[in-house]
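Table S5 (text form). Sequence records supplied for joint modeling of the four-component complex.
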Amino acid sequence: MNAKDWQYFQKLSELKNFSDTARHFGVSQPTITYSLKRLEDEYGVQLVERKSYANSLRLTYAGNQLLKHVNRIIREDYLAKSDLKRLKDKKIRIGLPPIITNYLLPNVFDQLKENNFLDEMEQVVDGSKELLAELKNGRLDISLLGTTRLPEDAELEYKIIKVHHFNLIASKKRNFGDSIDLSDLLKEEFILTDNNSVHRQVFKRFTDKYNVLPNVIFETSDYNLLLNLVKADKGISFIAETASSLEEGIQEVKVNNLELPPFYILLVYRTNTLKTPIFSKIIDIFSDGCKD
Amino acid sequence: MNAKDWQYFQKLSELKNFSDTARHFGVSQPTITYSLKRLEDEYGVQLVERKSYANSLRLTYAGNQLLKHVNRIIREDYLAKSDLKRLKDKKIRIGLPPIITNYLLPNVFDQLKENNFLDEMEQVVDGSKELLAELKNGRLDISLLGTTRLPEDAELEYKIIKVHHFNLIASKKRNFGDSIDLSDLLKEEFILTDNNSVHRQVFKRFTDKYNVLPNVIFETSDYNLLLNLVKADKGISFIAETASSLEEGIQEVKVNNLELPPFYILLVYRTNTLKTPIFSKIIDIFSDGCKD
DNA sequence: TATAATTGATAAATAAAATTTATAAGTGAG
DNA sequence: CTCACTTATAAATTTTATTTATCAATTATA
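The corresponding structure-token record, covering 584 residues in total, follows.
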């Protein structure tokens, strides 16, 4: 049996039409008919209901069951191809969320350079959520990630690089004393990251939990702009210490009785990804270089 | 490319010998050589290192990476075949751990009979651990399961049928008063299930937690024997209420300040298993029939 | 309602791919 | 050095996949 038969079957299930499927692959229509027949022989069961000659083709239960497995098989083969392609090119595609990267990269830069890894790493800069999706789809080999929840996914492994905390931050120009109450905090004007970021989601969970409604006057996806606005005392903000710890002109605002989740900085990769020496070395460099 | 090439490659990786691999599949030796060449073409990368002509064949990094994906592909195809086979035979292979089955089956027997499901269910009686392994390997469609921890596995889904508790049990002939202290309990002689059972594992965790060493005088895998021995006051035991609640002549022994985990009775099945009407109906029968 | 257009199935022919046979050439043990 | 064993290759053969041509069933539409 040919591996193509699975591809044909998957497309046929989608298009529900033999001729269109044939056209899609640039083959003749009987090819699809015979291919399906091969599959039905191979699995010993009818996969498609031919009620009427034209129109409205339907998968049998067995066909639907097979489709689920076929989807996985095709996905796995696709992952194999993209993994091998990058292995061949000696490229490691690494996902880099901006805030975390700015924080970590100075610590590991020399090490990466010494090992000649700088050319071998193909960088993809995006948000943590997007990077995680790219990683699962096989378009990344490994990714840095900032998250409050450790991945629970049998397909993924991770290494905790650092555990940070979320902070409320304000300009150094301000004076809040040792700490303030939540009610005082709510009198302030907030400048926040936009809705997609982890920071914002944690902020939302925290406002929900304490049932408060802060005054958000500005949102941005550019966290440097955010920090500069806070420095200039245009408002206060909420962000992981990852972003703010290296900055001058910013202070942490301590709020009484405020509980926030930890912010994990991880390296994430697929379980199935082969740990070549280069791959392992990169993981080592990040985890060693970022120890306290 | 032929699906067989993956099989050949998997076996070649295992046997590390072209001729033996050929013999294993009953084909000629060049078949394996050409098959490998096809794979190397398909994926555009060398998979096997031919250091010397005879002996000691080694996979390249790319070969190792491919092998991981190939293992999944072959497993998935195997799952497809066994799923479809049972769909065709209209058989649902269901795993039944004895204790749970004895407890539940009377409640659902009539319903199963009315729907003519009794013949369609192929029963596999074994311990919860073994059944879970069989389920993952595709040799079962669905299984009843007794466990203290809910499965965390993306490949599996489950439905909680009932939540039971673990009890210390003794013969009705004995009189313990309202409740007793742990120290008094330890003076007793224990008759327990053998090491493989959930009950025994929970018992072990509980003795570890409270750092005590009970006097176990007899072990058995036959829980009816165990209950009969307890009835006859040959010793006391530890088991989920599932086993003992229907029995006469047995009492629960309440121990002060003793915390035990819940005992979940689940129906577990693979995420990829198609939920045919029969399949869904069986799940419904079990969950409806076992409501309090 | 007749007719044209479209659909999927089938047979036979053809093309493509997998496999075998036969053989060569490299390697290691004795 | 020779023998036994390995993998690679070329050519022949077998098997499998695909195409072409065509038919019968079904829809669309005029």
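Note: Chain B has a mean pLDDT of 89.
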